[in-house]
TrEMBL record:
The keyword Signal applies. Keywords: Signal, TPR repeat. SUPFAM superfamilies: TPR-like. TPR repeats lie at residues 54-87, 206-239. This is Tetratricopeptide repeat protein. Residues 1-22 form the signal peptide. Residues 547-568 are annotated as: Disordered. It comes from Flectobacillus roseus. Gene3D superfamilies: Tetratricopeptide repeat domain.
Amino acid sequence: MKVKMKSLLVAVSLLFAGAANAQTVQQGLSQLDGDQPSKAKATFESLVAAAPTAENQFYLGYYNLRVGHLDAAKAAFEKGLTIDAKNPLNAVGLAAIKVANHKVADAKVDFDKIIADTKSKNADVLFRIAEAYVMFYDVNNGEEANKGNNDPAEAIRLIDMIPEKTKVKELTVDMNTVKGDAYLIKNDGGPAVSAYEQANFKEKSAKLYTKIGIVYLRGKNYQYTVNAYQSAVETDSNYAPIYKRFGEYYNIFNRYKDASKYYRKYVSKAEASPTILLSTAKLLFLAKDYTGSMEFTSQAEAGGAKDNDIYRMKGYSFIELNKCQEGINNLEQMVKAGVKPYYLDNVYFAKGYQCLNNDSLAVHYFEQAAPLDTNNNHHLSIYSIRYKQKRYAHAADAAFKSIEWKAKKKLQATSGDWYNAALAYYFAAAYTPKTDSVNRVSLAMKGDTSFAKAIGINAKWPPFFLFRARTNNLIDYSGDKWLAAPYYEQYLTVIGALKAENSTTYKEKKDDTYEALRYLSGYYLTVSKDTVKAEDAIKKALEIKPEDPDGLKSMLPGATPATPAPKK
């Protein structure tokens, strides 16, 4: 009887020990999912210290794998194999390191051998291999960054094998989650949401609601995105990643204050490790919270962060805060440290030097950034600098490159785009010596073509016609073709229409109107021989300048010639 009782007590104690172990593992995984890596590390290390089993070594290695400590992961998995060579999970972990190192093909050889050795009957093996195929893909990175570190199709195949080949006939929460992740990588939103929802039916979690929201965000179903994110908060308000996702959502709509608020809340819920602080600094920078970005960057640095991106973040943020020399200094330190260059580095070098009034270096860096930055049209910045420098031919070239950039992005050029080019050509022609009539006329004709393009898009903006008239005056270098006449007439017509509409979009400049009336007075009298129009033009001109500085009255038939002003 005593023997039986003793055996029963041993069995019960083992049962409770197993339950406690499982609970501790789940706690560590939750901490890992909740961006609390130090807590997760302590949990898994205490697990190994209490029971140095092959399984516990696997979870310690798994933690290191997830946080990117690949050498520590390798050591943990290898130790697990020495404890129990028959436990296949540590072998899976070692192969998963190859996936992390963008060597999927090499990893697959190892994975296939492990599956063969376990006769495709071990559900944990199939699940963990499938997970490895999706673990290292980051939805926020481009395809190049994720190249060679995932195989979603193979992950789905392995998950689907589990109910067919093993004793597990219904997929668990974690298995459906991995399946959803695989479909998300494939950008197949419907099956991804379906898998996540199947997992959520079994066990509602903030993590799953967050993933569902990410799928909807990708599909631009914004209300569904918000609904899913709000469900995540309601399910577990301490789940830190949801606040980061909310911040990213508000960033899309340029609601930067809301984004910054959520990023800061993220740090309050996550573990404020140097890595997370620096990551949050980058997010705050995107939310245009430059002061917050500097604050968190400094905290990360004080906590021992050695990431060379610290130079970059300080450089960018200082420049945005108009502390441009400090910004340039940090960017130069970054270059000296041999940090891998990024196109935005050139953008911020350019902004910094522009702030310091070093226009030549600013243009140099904008020109370096322009071909690489597909999101921003830096040719406009180059145009502004060159125009300010009165290097009009270069400004015109930048304006045309800006139009070409838009065309490549399948964006329509605006009337303002063509006006920029036209105005630059006009001044380039005007500043060309009259003796160089060939280049002067050539530049003016390019300006005329550009003004025509601007007018074709918007025929209600007076300066387009005014400057086209002036440009034609340059083309008409002999002054006897009166090429500007139709454009001065159109200028006056547009001005009149705006007045009739009581429009406030354009404030008439009397000197410009006088210029048009003076020119047309001569045209009507000498070319069209229309004295009625001439008298009307002169009358209106004299209303603007009654002192008649150009002697317009004397131009009319029968008028007394103007008395020349006495010589001084």
